[in-house]
Amino acid sequence: MATMQQVADRAGVSIATVSFVVNGTKYVTPATTARVQAAMRELKFRGNVVARALASRRTRIIALLFPTTGNRFSPTTSEFFMSAAERASERGYHLVLWPVDPAGDDLDDLVSGGLVDGVILMEVRMDDPRVAVLTALDVPFTLIGRTRDSSGLPFVDIDFETTIESSIDHLEALGHRRFALVLEDLEGTPMAGYAPHLRTQDTFRRVTAARGLVGTVVTAGPGSDGGRTAASELLALDPDVTAVLVMKDDSSAGLLVGLYAAGRRVPEDVSVLSIASSETNADQHYPRLSTMVAPGRRLGTRAADALIDQLDGKSDELPHFLLPCTLREAESTAPAPA
Question: How far is residue 166's CA from residue 161's CA, in Å, rounded to a whole number?
Fold first, then answer.
């Protein structure tokens, strides 16, 4: 088995530099780190993770927590995972995905056992009991999302308020005056009070009312059937709607089918704009969906940096990062019908 000295000789650095890279105890330039890591791979060097953890009282493992209930995965969620894991690795940490109970009842076992140095919490609700548990356990954490009052909490989040206002700006500029918003139906589930939905709905109602626009909100059940039902309910509430914002990837196709089945062409009669989604998802539909693309990779990277900066003592300030979605126009939006 290779030794640190052999790795140092192969990489052309001191044994102290190899130790810094292995243990993450001191900054090493990316170029030098890459040389040391290449030498470790060539020599099949394996550091003793347990010994390092005992010596430093840190595991250099962070956990990305997501709720165990329902199917909460999407292309955007995957981007969160991958970018956070990549950034953690670049900074000498390992990121693990850890499902937790929505009530946070199982967090004590994870944190108090010393398995991880800190956590990133995602799928945040307005009044999220997991935040209170993490605060009481005095464990470093960062949110991907915001609670009702996040002023005293570290967070990164999509700027849903700006995203919705920009969405309405875009469609209003195309002449649309009758709007609808389609959201996931979470009533009666453990995810009730999901912050992104409430912020989106509140902003939609506020902006449409302030501008004298018609604004209708409907919820969709799971899958394509949920989208079809939502289309029927929407047209029953406002048969003259011309612009629909949909924030539910798995029901978007059903929504389009439901509009077509009711004799509404997209985009000639009704424009459809997907909210906080991905280009990958948008391109799977006909017509291709215009989309407010979620900043998934940037959010994951920011969240990892925010947590690791706390762990490494590089920042005394609470991170508060809001990143809006960006518009990608495609074939599902057009000027309002005359």
Answer: 9
